[in-house]
Specification:
mainly alpha
Length: about 55
Amino acid sequence: MSDSKNSIRWESLPSEIATNIFLLLPIKSIIVCTSVSKTWKSQIQNPTTKTSSS
């Protein structure tokens, strides 16, 4: 069901929204999210710094 035309790419989300999403997660989930990608890890470790999409 993941149609590339209809799916929202994580990189297109404003950093403020991504930070708010992470703030809603339990700590164990946040720790797991740091292993998903360099972008997520950077966003979690320093939520006030805007990350470039890579």
